[in-house]
Amino acid sequence: MDMTTKQEIEFPRINFVALLAGALFLVSLFLYWWGLDTTGTIAGSSVSDSLRWSIWSGPSNTPISSTQSFQTLATYSPAIGLLTIASAVLLLLGSIPKAHRLLVGGVVVSVLTPIFYALLVNYTVSNGCGGSSNCITGPFGTETTTFGPLSLTRTWGFQTGFYIEIVGAVLAIIAIAFHRTFLKMKAP
Q1: Phi-psi category of 154—alpha, beta or left, where left has phi over 0 and alpha has psi -120 to 50?
Q2: What is the signed CA dihedral for 100, 106, 109, 112, rounded to 10 degrees?
Q3: Is residue 132 very low, low, confident or very high in pLDDT (cuts 50, 70, 90)?
Q4: What gap in Å lies between CA 95 and CA 19, rounded to an integer?
């Protein structure tokens, strides 16, 4: 009688790459997605100011010339937040082998979300200047202005939350390949 038997360990059939992507989407919801930093010197004294926009709200005080335009960013960003939540939910549910269609839907939404946000920021910034020459241009950039003893540098662009969402979208695409390679459904 043979006393040794081989036991196979069966790991859960879950797409861990999709779970990681979904977790990154949820993390990005709590971080800033766009910001504007001003630094400089006034007669030898240093000054700095930072304005940040999260998905859910903008800064409480905005000394930008066209606050109404930047209110557009704060008004429509929650829609981007809802798309990010939808991506997370679809990816988390799609991590189960039988729910691969949800995974594909999550990937589509996750890829479109940063594109929509970049378009929203570009629209907001473009309309915020109203033809003024002393205004930021485009969704990211830097400029330095000098007036005698006053020197100011403004830097604006996407922040950590936006980039984490993009990493999540890339992982979501990889999750589809992982799903098709390692979690194929066995035919009965």
Answers
A1: beta
A2: -90
A3: low
A4: 6
Strand partners, 144: 153
Asked if residue 165 lies in contact with residue 25, where contact means CB atoms within 8 angstroms, the answer is yes
Helix (H) or strand (E) run with residue 154 in it: strand 150-158
pLDDT of residue 172: 96
Helix, strand counts (H, E) of the chain: 4, 4
Span 52-63, pLDDT tens digits: 999 998 876 655
Query: Would you give the DSSP letter of residue 10?
Result: -
**Contact criterion met (CB below 8 Å) for 31 and 161:** yes
Give the other-Cβ count within 10 Å of 135's Cβ.
Answer: 17
Choose among 26, 89, 33: nearest CA to 56: 33
Tell me the whole-structure pTM to 2 decimals: 0.85
